[in-house]
Amino acid sequence: MYRPDVFPLFKIVLLSTFIIAAVACAPQQTTRKLVDAEAVAAAFAALTAGDYHSAAAQFSTLANTMADSADVSLHRLNAASAQLWASQKTELKRTLERVPANGLPEELHLWQQILKVGTSLSGHSPVAAVKQLAPIAGEQLRPQIRRDLHYLRALLYGQTREPLNEARERAALMELLHTDTERTSNANALWVALNEVAPRSLSRLRAEATLRVSGWVELALLVQSDIHNSAKFDRALQRWQESYPDHPARLRIVQEIRELEKSIAVRPRSIALLLPFSGRFAEAAAAIREGFLTAWYVDNQQLSRPTLRLYDANVANIDSVYGQATQEGADLIVGPLQKDAVDVLARRSSLPVTTLALNEVSRSTDLIKFYQFALAPEDEARQVAERAWLHGHKRALCVTPEDAWGARLLVAFAEQWRALGGELLESQVYPRPNRDFAGPIKRALNIDGSEMRAKTLHSILGQSVKSETRRRDDIDFVFVAGFPSEVRQLRPQLEFHRGVDLPVFATSHVFAGTADRIADQDLNGITFGDMPWIIEPDHPEFAIFREVAEQWPEQANQHSRLHALGIDAYRLIPQLARLRIQRYARFRGVSGELSIIRGGRIQRQLNWAKFVDGRPLPVNMPTRE
Asked: Is the dihedral of CA 208, 213, 215, 217 positive or negative?
């Protein structure tokens, strides 16, 4: 029988009773000691109840009133631990700064180092943080320290995309959590991590699993091996429930698995396509529709091909149109396209049918039947960071447009780059529209500083000075965000100002999508990520685009990426449940290699090319030593 060993409240009560009794029996007891003992018990009670803000405040007060320096340090660490769980990063840092670096007992010094990692969960390299925490053996530590250690390692392994290690940490964390809410949240995260592990690795984990882990591993293996055989799966799931009657997955997660089993077994009969066919997004909606209809038309499953209904859906009417579509028989919905409209659906507590939105939500969601598929420029910027890191680069320079779009790309790139352990040396922006790109490039390369030094020297000496302008020499590569007409002007400025040897990386927006060998000479040397079919349009696998060109010749080149989104949106439909369960699985689409990550988000892995003689040529993926 599986039953997590929950840290019980009665232990805190016994502890506080013992402390009070001990103080009461002391030869020279004082009211002050009794008050302190009661305050300690109250702070631990708040901690155990999951009221971390209150616990942090109480422990901080205790630290400020204690006379003994050892007690002061202990309660500051207690406060810091509570602040970690309350996500009070600023307060956590301030508290740890008040704990002395020397003189602590070994266990408390180790706790201090563990909590310091918690101050740098964002904006710093999780890889480096993992290296700090990985060697620590937590078995002999007190439960509160083990809890913080496993929690931080679980978060970090999630950031470094090591689901097997994350699952190990979350399984160890389960028995140390205080509240049902924490255990439920951790269970959900553990289940997601296990579903990102390939069956072979799960089998290895089963061999080493303790009782607290084995139930999770057995359930994950069951889902990955038997869910496509309904009768066999039902029998296996029944046996699992009999073996683990008190397992934390028995309610919500098992229910979710049964929902997914049903969705795998049933191919949709009627699809509703909800797009803004009128208004400012009408052109984009039309291109997506053209790609979607082409994929539907050439579907090999002609006999079981679903019927299609098209609806004009926007932010204002999404609720009513969604309801109308389901009432008229749609058992799968694709859309909406606008981000605000997607947010409206994501705020619901549940959805009646599987929904594949063509944008991403502003906040995370755990809706079971909800998927998000978008051509998000932020995702491309993150992949640029990963690509540059794999090339062995460490120090980056960014040049982006001075608008909201440029800011989004800069933030996405910078966050991912720093998470990988890279350093962002400088970022410069250029205004839109802009005819002179020399200024941002000179500032980025510190050319203007070199020129200023020469002018200053001339002013001091009162005569002309022979000088050679130099750029900064600590740059490994440049990330440029912009469209073809902009980057065609930026790249020559970079070369002119002594940056000819610097590698340049960009998102797909640098390429118009069709070859222009003369105009794109100025893009030579730039490496960028894009859809597979854009980089290799003549590949036999992408023959469907000939169908698009025949049906809509005028739009084929202008909206090729939106056509790809429509094609993959249709082709993904029978793959959704499988990809959601088997997180390690991939589907090769025309827009990229597709997989499903947390929150039902479709992740696109781009192909890569480099401009050579005005043409984008495919390049292989490097590996970082």
From this structure: negative
